[in-house]
Amino acid sequence: MALGEHLESWRPEPVTTVDDMLPGPVAAMSAVLDQPIPAGPLPPLWHWLYFLDWPLQRELGEDGHPREGHFLPPIPDRRRMIAGGRLKVREPLELGVEAERVSRLGEVTVKQGSTGEMVFVTVRHEISQGGRLRLVEDQDVVYRSGEDERRKAMLTTSTAEAPAADERWQLELRPDTRLLFRFSALTANAHRIHYDEPYVRDVEGYPGLVVHGPLLVLLMLELVRERPVRSVAFRLRKPVFAGEHLRLLGSPGLDGAGLRVATAREDRHATAEVGFA
């Protein structure tokens, strides 16, 4: 059955959730990044530490993802990967003030790729505080049915240093298992590709533990931490693995900056365009 046939009657209704926006997750994330706790409002996209979903243990699939979910498309043997997203900041979120998030299904597209059919799903989140809309975020997630057996031959890992680059802003980092484990805990992410090495090699076919795509985005945004951000558009292109040397790079422009993540293997694992207020 074509994937589109599984989606013909799938029309999930919007969902509203609330969060008290307590300061604990921000303090924990700051410790994970070896950075001081930010003063003032929440840094852009740090709301990923909030509005978390903790399903019952028996509701998890073999891969660690929930077997069912409100915005998970009903396709067989579902495999999930975050592809990218966009954020518009009207006002930054404040800690200690209850926030409301309204989530709704956006565009759903079935595409034929070189490895078979894929479903692209966009979910929009609108986050408000004090009766005012603060953030609008679109998350793009791609799904496929079953594994891509060719992946084992396509993916490699390298412990070589990332090549030199000319960008004005640069940070270097080598993510290890401790970083991946702590970020998984902070974001309620039980996907086994981030912490279970036998599983990630033998079942999913990766050469090592996979660094979270959202973590790569937050690391890129460390390059612009001191600047007022009004928009972020990011793409996750190729996976990064634990133990690889990352170079986080940024080139400032007139009203924003272009950011990227490079290793010895690839010069653009992830990219982001940031607009400044």
Word description of this protein:
By secondary structure, the protein is an alpha+beta fold. It is 15% helix and 34% strand. Helix 2 packs antiparallel against helix 4. It is globular and about 45 Å long. The chain starts with a helix and ends with a strand.
Apparent shape: globular
Largest sheet: 10 strands, antiparallel
- Element order: H for helix, E for strand: HEHEEEEHEHHHEEEE
Whole-number mean pLDDT: 92
Tell me the helix content.
Answer: 10-25%
Query: Which band does the percent of strand residues land in?
Result: 25-35%
Uncertain segments: none
- The total beta strand count reads 10
Gyration radius, to the nearest Å? 19 Å
Strand order in the sheet with the most strands: 1-3-4-5-2-7-10-9-8-6
| Helix/sheet category | alpha+beta
N-to-C span: 48 Å
Number of helices: 6
InterPro entries: HotDog_dom_sf (IPR029069), Mitochondrial_HTD2 (IPR052741)
Protein name: 3-methylfumaryl-CoA hydratase
Organism: Amycolatopsis cynarae
Produce the secondary structure layout.
Elements: H1 3-6, E1 15-19, H2 24-32, E2 78-89, E3 99-113, E4 116-129, E5 132-145, H3 151-154, E6 169-173, H4 177-186, H5 197-202, H6 213-221, E7 229-236, E8 246-252, E9 256-262, E10 270-276
Antiparallel strand pairs: 1-3, 2-5, 2-7, 3-4, 4-5, 6-8, 7-10, 8-9, 9-10
Helix pairs in contact: 2-4
Summary?
This is 3-methylfumaryl-CoA hydratase. The protein is an alpha+beta fold and 277 residues long. It is built from six helices and ten strands.
Keywords:
277 residues; alpha+beta; globular
